Amino acid sequence: MVFIKHAPAAHPQATMVEAAGLRWLTRAAEAGGAPVVPVLRATPGTGPGAGPGSDAQRGALELEELSSRTPDAEAAQRFGAALARTHVWLASRPGAAGAAGGAGDAGSAGAASGAGDAASAAEPVGFGTLPPEHPVGTPAYFGPAEQPLALGIGVHSSWGAFTAAERLDPVLRALEASITVPDKALLRAARDRIDSGALDDDEPPALIHGDLWAGNVLWTRTEAGAVEAVLIDPAAHAGHRETDIALLHLFGLPELDAVISGYQQEHALREGWRERIPLHQLFCLAVHWLLFGPSYRGATLNAAEAVLRL
Questions:
Q1: Mean pLDDT, all residues of the chain
Q2: Structure confidence at residue 121 (pLDDT)
Q3: Dihedral sign of CA atoms 194, 98, 259, 291 in order
Q4: 274-285 burial, b if ≥16 CB within 10 A, otherwise e?
Q5: pTM for this prediction
Q6: Dihedral through CA 286, CA 13, CA 159, CA 247, nearest 10?
Q7: 153 φ, ψ (degrees, to nearest 5)
Q8: Could you tell me if 25 and 74 are in contact, meaning their C-beta atoms sit under 8 angstroms apart?
Q9: Residues with Cβ < 8 Å from 259, sequence gap 6 or more?
Q10: Burial of 177 (0-12, 13-18, 19+ CB in 10 A)
Q11: What was the pLDDT predicted at 126?
Q12: Largest Cα–Cα distance in the chain?
């Protein structure tokens, strides 16, 4: 069976962006990382002028359709260990090195179009490096398929600089017109603390799913009859592995304790990771405030306050 998604008319390359992310994650899966839904076919749309009733013009992403199952602790542990292997895959490739370039390189032609060059070979990658097949000149996307939010494509040597410039800035610019001055000041203060690099560490850029809330982990059954977790709907890029872990905590994942146990046994997180969960949830919460309204205001501001306490 085939599951088909269509690109919004305003974002004709969205199907190709998602396919690129799935294929990059699949390369890690082939090395023991978390399983990924198979991409059967992907086509781009023809542009913003495509008619809303024309699926062919909107572009299509054809995926293998998977049936849903209920997870158990054993399957969750296996997923946690496999996710850890996904996260270390970039750094463990033969010849791989640390982050390349600096914040000054962000937005350059190499950053925008050369993500594939850096990621396809065992060359250094930076925070924000996109999948090898990411369409040239196309933004990164985050959020629901029918309402994706366009993000920056700059590559940085600092996770904090990347998160501030390429993730938080586009969201805050869109959000600030409709929020109070005190709320804006708090969000800006948290953004500036992240940008300062004070919360950076020595973790190398990791291949992450990038939008790993519970709804993007599909529990299914293998041909052998075992339950396994499969990654869907990514916003894949080279980021900080704690971001995926924090998003797993955001809306509640079944058997989460077992997932974390399996992860820790494979590649333990740095001490204090639980206290840093709000740091890595702030961007996603701000997106929800922007797209879905003020019901997410409290959680977003709480995360911002937690960032300032770190």
A1: 90
A2: 52
A3: positive
A4: eebbbbbbbbbb
A5: 0.90
A6: 50
A7: -125, 15
A8: no
A9: 76, 77, 79, 80, 83, 248, 253
A10: exposed
A11: 97
A12: 57
Contact partners, residue 103, CB within 8 Å, separation at least 6: 154, 156, 157, 158, 161, 162, 165
Q: Are 89 and 207 in contact (CB under 8 A)?
A: yes
Q: Give the span between the Cα atoms of 81 and 23, in whole angstroms.
A: 20
Residue 173 has pLDDT above 70, yes or no: yes
In degrees, rounded to 5, the angle at the alpha carbon of residue 67 between the alpha carbons of residues 62 and 70 is 140
Percentage, residues of the chain above pLDDT 70: 87
Other beta carbons less than 10 A from residue 132's beta carbon: 17
167 vs 235: CA distance, rounded Å: 12
Q: Quick one: which of 154, 65, 66, 74 has its CA closest to 115?
A: 154
Do residues 305 and 275 make contact, with C-beta atoms less than 8 angstroms apart? no
Tell me how far CA of residue 241 lies from CA of 111, 234, 294, in angstroms.
21, 14, 28
